[in-house]
Amino acid sequence: MKLVLVEAIGAQVSRIGFGCASLGSRVGTRKGLETLERAYDAGISWYDVSPSYGDGMAESILGEFAARKRNRVYVCTKVGMRPPATPAAMRLLKPLSRVAVAALPALKRYASRVRPAPYKVPLSAELITTSVEESLRRLRTDYVDVLALHRPAVEELVREDVVRALERIVQAGKARAVSIAGDLAAGMKGLDKSLPYRLVQVANTPFEPNLETLRERASPGKSFVTYGTFACLAQLVAQLNERPEIPSALHGLGYRGHITDIAAAFLADYAFASNPGVTLFSMLHREHLDFNLQRLGNYPTREQLDSVVTALLEGARRADPMPNSPLSRKKPDVVPLRENSGERIKPRPSSRI
Ligand SMILES: NC(=O)c1ccc[n+]([C@@H]2O[C@H](COP(=O)([O-])OP(=O)(O)OC[C@H]3O[C@@H](n4cnc5c(N)ncnc54)[C@H](OP(=O)(O)O)[C@@H]3O)[C@@H](O)[C@H]2O)c1
């Protein structure tokens, strides 16, 4: 496993991070633990979680996994989003719905649509303090490596009470560093030297290259964690089918195979080539873990990918010349990120988790 130094915590961690958003929702505790152990055996040491993930169960599952290897894994949890209040009947039906989705993958989209979504809560010093205590209890630990504000508004992350509460948590040793996990505007503000945020976590894809904007502004010592790699897989496959010059450029770079595999390989490569830090993936399927590890082993440079990225962005711009018009808002090109939906793409080859 390739490692990277995260200066904020003074540790070398795995370049691939395990995203825990679907532990407790798409899979239950037993499968979740199996999946975590598989990732750990493959050398993954960075685990990204939130109180809102997995309908509120992800932290407990991760806590059970990490209990006996706490000093060999790095845990980032968050504050600011709550799990949905799932009706009791729906909770009882969850194991049944997982079996149904495994048998009939077409149900996946429907299951994800009816599942209540996590919601944002306004940040306050009290919320931060209580949320961290509850996370530590569920994670069975007395510290997390990183505590991130989860989708904060820009005005929240600069507020004196919020900043002081975070500083107290770091001073008490309950978090080794604090971070922003939100949109580009929050990430940009989080880079301010006067603020305590040492890491920034954002979505980053060829169609939404947030990291390029952030890295231009970042001072030394900031680390970046990215996610959202496969959110645009369907969009990319559509472009490859419509514009033969792009697959042919990818062939020239050595990409081979089925068009979906080429698209997935390119997206993983783009993620690694554009972020020398940690890239998070959802990898409940073993073949996704294997595939992403294999790409990490040997990916092209960002410069080698440049001509393809430019062609893709031009294509996206031509298809949607006015990205903010009401018309284009009705038909977004990129499926919006929904953290524990896990239904943006059909895993290929399809298999049971
Ligand atoms: N605000 C935030 O900070 C924020 C927001 C979103 C996500 N996150 C974090 O990032 C993690 C990852 O989320 P994401 O949105 O970036 O998910 P992702 O890794 O893009 O995965 C999305 C889907 O792609 C599949 N996949 C994984 N590897 C693949 C491959 N090589 N080829 C084809 N499909 C593949 C996954 O399948 P399987 O899982 O079924 O294997 C999953 O269904 C989350 O779990 C969460 O920890 C943070």
Describe the structure.
The protein is built from 15 helices and twelve strands. With 353 residues, it is an alpha/beta fold. It has a domain at 3-83 and 118-230 and 275-301: TIM Barrel (Alpha-Beta Barrel), CATH 3.20.20.100. The chain has an eight-stranded parallel beta barrel with strand order 3-4-5-8-9-10-11-12, surrounded by four helices. Strands 1-2 form a two-stranded antiparallel sheet. Strands 6-7 form a two-stranded antiparallel ribbon. The radius of gyration is 20 Å and the shape is globular. It starts with a strand and ends in a 23-residue tail after the last helix. Bound molecules: NADP nicotinamide-adenine-dinucleotide phosphate. NADP nicotinamide-adenine-dinucleotide phosphate is lined by residues 19-21, 48, 151, 181-182, 201, 227-231, 264, 268, 280-285, 288, 291-292, 337, 339, 342, 344-345, 347.
Question: Which keywords apply here?
Answer:
353 residues; alpha/beta; TIM Barrel; eight-stranded parallel β-barrel; two-stranded antiparallel ribbon; 46% helix; binds NADP nicotinamide-adenine-dinucleotide phosphate
